[in-house]
């Protein structure tokens, strides 16, 4: 890319855009692909982190992606595969030449290979296992024996451990003598003779201490052992709650079999949050920007289907009041307002409840207090908006009674919204259904039905 | 707590409840508070992590909280304060005796004190600054000079650095000679003579290498320098994207002035996600379970107010068709279905778009492709639900024309939902408004208005 071309593209990136790929960098890379200038492409991609190259591949169109990968050829790094979105990753694997794929996979850490294999189809799965060396293949297959989303899938099997009776000097001599230490490690794990982990010693403490100090005197105060079958969400929670940097993983007998580090926990935390947000919105939790149209349609259809049922139920309520609406059309004009306000208030309460359940802040110890608060908040907001809507109803349609009716319906629906928005997620969690996934549909059903029923029912009583 | 009492409370915790406080543990603690058994209370709280004690304090009621804190007295640890929710924290600080508070604050790291001070009122602010020793107070006040939510507030000023020309042996001797090394550190930062950081060397590499190896040969491949004014959200993004463990922080001249570690970045990532979810639901981003009724009401009111305006706008659209509704009440029964489906489809699209903007996956390079996808998804889902609702309309009201009308309105509204759900967050981001905060209101307005307009408008054209 010549300097001339760079100048043609104005510098529009502000500080807010830190870490996003610059437009002109993307343009330069695509230009190199266009003119098939391999040397230039390699030079442009070389300074980029694998995660950024993965982002680039996700953002360009499939045609450019294919050409870029074929031109980049042998330079393609295994880490890029780990960083790619599932959908694009499958596509990229199918584009890579077999020998390039084999090289890329052989470069990867075993836990990354496991992560890669989890999402792949059978044929690609086997191609990748075949590319591995025997010892790596064994490690990967052992990991795959642990349940999906468990600590066993997340851990690395390479750990640095020391007998509990060692001194600093013995540990340093041992580490100097090893030539296959893990790429990243921050602690030496002390173990008893039966390989039960009993403490972590940070490398910093070891380096700063005299050779004759027993390691046992240097163990960290904060020490948590992760069972191999623990759900990865709970693992991430423990790292976040207790500010862990790394934690030993143990089997059913409590023996050390691996280690999880905070960067893996951070990735899980990020994914779990993403899933929660997408579930709350009724979007398939695995969905991504790279999904194809049909896949996206399929993911969104179920929630829209549930919503249709909800909406039809609400319509059935309205249908009971056709006579009232025919004699006073103002009811049809105003009724969506009550339902809509209830839906929004309910969504507010349920989002707070779902989050509090996820962070284990909403428990049996405070559920009644939270419920009371939500109902009171609904009552106060209900009274405020009842006043406003009562006046709107009066001014718009010149009827005091219509004002009373919409005001009363508003109070009722906002109180019910607070109640349902809190109680429904709590109950769903108790019966073992993910509250993030299902609460929205239930709460909206309640607020729609109560909204229409309260408004139209009161109207019949008061007005007709 | 006697074993007898423990037996009275059935064991209901399943594996899913990992890391949440057990009911019976809470009961035992509250019992100790009830009978004012200080020794028992201290014994029960002693094994708990500060984060768990903070969770406990958040979950019990204000009366028990006060009694517990006064009974716990001098054992109260500064770290508990760091872990508490803002609202409860202010309350707890006002309960703590001045000397207990002073002790607690003196135990804390300077970055935790900064975090604590950020949220406090003036009088509490000064009380805490007064409790600090002079040197600590200076460090804290220097930090407070950096903008809120910047890397400067997040960093610790204690760093371990070495000149770039040092060898492993020199580094080890230096570390052994220091007696005030940071509590947690994982890298030695290499700096040039002008204190510009030029690389990280992990302690593991130093320990595993011979004494005469130059540190420069051991630097990590992945190395990012964080400007002190960078937004903490971007810092968290960098740690997550590039799998950083710690990163040096530099001033405007690029000189090393501090260090950020991954556990701080993880906390920020967690907070940012939380904010995003709460904003998407129209709940104040700072809201928590511990907020009082009036505070919660105040936080939720604005979004409900915006929704009321939206709902009234939609009602104004309906009001234009009062004649049509009066002559065919079925329209009033069916119209909420079209608006509701549009609202849900729009929320799906906007959630995906808002997330993709936050993770920098939706950029100028792919926005048109994503927009096209969302419109196509809306079209396909629109056709599917148009068919279903067309049949429902026909069967329910026995009118082919009503079926056509609701089907056509459904297709129109779901296409518009895909378009608006993607375009609105992108445009808001371009003009500098947080898309998570404002998209929902705009998108729902569009889908409500388009839904009612399309359905009622087509009805007038076709049916009347």
Automatic annotation (TrEMBL), chains A, B:
It is found in: Cell membrane; Membrane. Keywords: CBS domain, Cell membrane, Magnesium, Membrane, Metal-binding, Transmembrane, Transmembrane helix, Transport. InterPro entries: CBS_dom, CBS_dom_sf, Mg_transptr_MgtE_intracell_dom, MgtE_N_sf, MgtE_transporter, SLC41_membr_dom, SLC41_membr_dom_sf. Signal peptide: none annotated. It comes from the Bacteria. The chain crosses the membrane at residues 301-319, 325-354, 375-398, 404-428, 440-463. It is a multi-pass membrane protein. GO terms for molecular function: magnesium ion transmembrane transporter activity; metal ion binding. It holds the Pfam family CBS. Belongs to the SLC41A transporter family. Homodimer. Acts as a magnesium transporter. This is Magnesium transporter MgtE. It comes from Primorskyibacter flagellatus.
């Amino acid at each position: 890319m010549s300097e001339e071309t760079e100048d043609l593209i104005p510098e529009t990136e502000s500080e807010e855009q830190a870490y996003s790929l610059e437009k002109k960098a993307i343009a330069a890379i695509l230009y190199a692909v266009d003119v098939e200038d391999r040397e230039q492409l390699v030079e442009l991609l070389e300074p980029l982190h694998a995660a950024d190259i993965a982002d680039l591949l996700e953002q360009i169109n499939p045609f450019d992606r294919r050409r870029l990968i074929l031109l980049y050829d042998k330079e393609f790094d295994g880490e890029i595969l780990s960083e790619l979105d599932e959908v694009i990753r499958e596509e990229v694997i199918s584009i890579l030449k077999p020998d390039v794929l084999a090289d890329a996979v052989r470069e990867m850490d075993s836990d990354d290979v496991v992560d890669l294999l989890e999402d792949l189809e059978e044929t690609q799965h086997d191609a990748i296992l075949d590319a591995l060396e025997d010892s790596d293949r064994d490690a990967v297959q052992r990991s795959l024996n642990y349940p999906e989303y468990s600590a066993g899938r997340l851990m690395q099997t390479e750990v640095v451990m020391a007998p509990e009776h060692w001194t600093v000097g013995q540990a340093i001599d041992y580490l100097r003598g090893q030539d296959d230490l893990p790429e990243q490690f921050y602690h030496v794990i002390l173990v008893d003779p039966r390989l039960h982990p009993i403490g972590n010693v940070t490398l910093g403490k070891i380096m700063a201490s005299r050779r004759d100090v027993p390691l046992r005197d240097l163990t960290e105060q904060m020490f948590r052992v992760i069972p191999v079958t623990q759900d990865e969400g709970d693992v991430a929670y423990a790292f976040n709650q207790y500010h862990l940097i790394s934690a030993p993983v143990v089997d059913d007998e409590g023996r050390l079999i691996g280690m999880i580090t905070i960067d893996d926990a951070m990735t899980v935390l990020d994914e779990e949050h993403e899933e929660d947000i997408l579930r709350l919105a009724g979007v398939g939790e695995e969905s991504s920007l790279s999904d194809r149209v049909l896949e996206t349609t399929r993911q969104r259809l179920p929630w829209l289907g549930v919503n249709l049922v909800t909406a039809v139920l609400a319509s059935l309520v309205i249908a009971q009041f056709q006579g009232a609406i025919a004699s006073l059309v103002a009811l049809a004009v105003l009724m969506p307002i009550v339902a809509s306000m209830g839906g929004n208030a309910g969504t507010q309460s349920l989002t707070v409840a779902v989050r509090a359940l996820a962070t284990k802040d909403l428990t049996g110890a405070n559920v009644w207090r939270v419920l009371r608060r939500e109902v009171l908040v609904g009552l106060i907001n209900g009274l405020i908006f009842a006043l406003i809507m009562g006046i709107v109803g009066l001014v718009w349609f010149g009827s005091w009674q219509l004002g009373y009716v919409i005001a009363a319906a508003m109070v009722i629906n906002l109180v019910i919204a607070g109640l349902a928005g809190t109680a429904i997620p709590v109950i769903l969690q108790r019966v073992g259904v993910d509250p993030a996934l299902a609460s929205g549909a239930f709460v909206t059903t309640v607020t729609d039905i109560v909204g229409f029923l309260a408004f139209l029912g009161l109207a019949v009583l008061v007005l007709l």
